[in-house]
């Protein structure tokens, strides 16, 4: 397998992307041990973080596939890799909130932990230089980076993913407070869940203790970052099994 | 008339609001000489500003009324007053942009002056403490401060006002770059244009020289603030007449 690894195309904050020489419609993702927050102003890492997050992402993509959610995931590759469909990323981060926390809670002056009557979908323009600004649907259309029907599809998929993940995390005794996903279009123009779903881009609070099991442990210097990510993986394996 | 003036109910940044003793469904607005920017962190004033802005607001409300746009305006009262319908303000500032400028241009990294293919409507939560954060329609609904049909009506009215004002300012050789309006509900539940439309809440650029004739002269220390506001009033009087 490794012989198909081509040159690196792109290095992001948490992953490297490589060409896959035997098929130009596939790329290889390597999960890094680094951890960043606040638009990469805060940097850190822990041993095996890449491998742990890769395992979590694989289990989530497999689980979502079993529930009919299309994603770029193809297969898990040792030791911190994942083969995925090559997609063109739709340049908006899609956030789904079940409970209010983070930037939106702060912006609206609402205490963290307010339970929403229904999930809230938000869009942020993917642009590091501009610090990923929050945008309305009308602004997304004004930018001419998407279409009304694409926005409808993104919201629909995001809410379907949310419903499935709520149930998965519930079985792990975790509340899915919110999460961020990205979508891409493959060479056939199909919209697929892309990037990753890991504790780097979810808020997961223990249902019993309210303890945080996500990147807020790093963002807010709460300690035990590695232990928390490992615990998420261990709880997940008990529910959805998978390779280890 | 003045004998109907009751006690002050509220003092805002640019206006005072008084009860109108002979009719509880009416209130009296007094336009102040003060000028504020950046959520009142920058303060200033000029002589007759209240009277000039009141005159501009009156002419605009009268013009919009003749075009079928419902507003709270009842009548002009000397020397810096206006009698209006008592309304409950819908707590969102509605911004319409024809050209990009100000906060949205900055947020999206687009140079000021980009002409939009169609007008962009934006909503900002009215909350001084939170510095009037930009909100999406889904966030507005989550806050339970409005309804889907009310949002539809606000956008419809804002775009109608925009179409009429573009034509008015065009005759004054001014480009209506953007403007902010507020709406309120009267005691019958009717949604009315409220607050004011003046150079305090519009961007007006001379069509020939691109010179600014609005609060950006104050915000950005461009000088000739009073002269610019006076010029807007004088050009407007030539087009729509009115008392002086």
Describe the overall structure.
2 copies of one chain form a homodimer. With 244 residues, chain A is α+β, with helices and mostly antiparallel strands. Chain A has 2 domains: 5-85, Phosphorylase Kinase, domain 1 (2-Layer Sandwich), CATH 3.30.200.20; 88-224, ATP-grasp fold, B domain (D-amino Acid Aminotransferase, Chain A, domain 1). Chain A is 31% helix and 32% strand. Chain A is built from 6 helices and 15 strands. Chain A has helices spanning 49-66, 102-108, 137-142, 148-171, 216-219, 225-240, and strands at residues 5-11, 15-20, 26-31, 34-37, 42-45, 73-77, 81-85, 88-89, 92-99, 115-125, 134-135, 174-181, 183-185, 191-193, 202-206. A 5-stranded antiparallel β-sheet of chain A has the order 1-2-3-7-6. In chain A, strand 4 and strand 5 form a beta hairpin. The longest helix of chain A has 24 residues, at 148-171. Chain A is globular and about 50 Å long. The two termini of chain A are 18 Å apart. Chain A binds chain B through residues 104, 107-109, 116-117, 120-123, 125, 127, 129-130, 133-139, 142-143, and chain B through 104, 107-109, 116-117, 120-123, 125, 127, 129-130, 133-139, 142-143.
């Amino acid at each position: 397998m490794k012989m198909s690894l081509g040159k690196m195309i792109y290095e992001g904050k948490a992953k490297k992307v490589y060409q896959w020489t035997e098929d130009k419609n596939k790329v290889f993702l390597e999960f890094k041990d680094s951890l960043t927050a606040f638009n990469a102003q805060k940097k850190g890492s822990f041993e095996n973080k890449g491998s742990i997050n890769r395992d979590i992402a694989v289990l989530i993509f497999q689980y979502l596939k079993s529930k009919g959610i299309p994603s770029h995931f193809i297969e898990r590759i040792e030791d911190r890799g994942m083969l995925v469909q090559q997609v063109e990323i739709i340049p908006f981060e899609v956030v789904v909130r079940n409970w209010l926390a983070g930037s939106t809670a702060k912006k609206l002056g609402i205490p963290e932990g307010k339970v929403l009557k229904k999930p809230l979908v938000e869009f942020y323009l993917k642009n590091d230089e501009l610090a990923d600004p929050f945008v309305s649907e009308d602004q997304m259309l004004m930018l001419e980076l998407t279409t009304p029907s694409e926005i409808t599809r993104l919201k629909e998929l995001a809410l379907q993913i949310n419903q499935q993940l709520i149930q998965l995390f519930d079985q792990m005794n975790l509340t899915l407070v919110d999460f961020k996903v990205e979508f891409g279009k493959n060479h056939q123009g199909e919209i697929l869940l892309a990037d990753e779903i890991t504790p780097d881009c979810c808020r997961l609070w223990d249902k019993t203790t309210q303890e945080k099991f996500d990147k807020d442990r790093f963002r807010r210097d709460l300690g035990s970052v590695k232990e928390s990510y490992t615990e998420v993986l261990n709880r997940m394996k008990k529910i959805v099994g998978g390779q280890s």
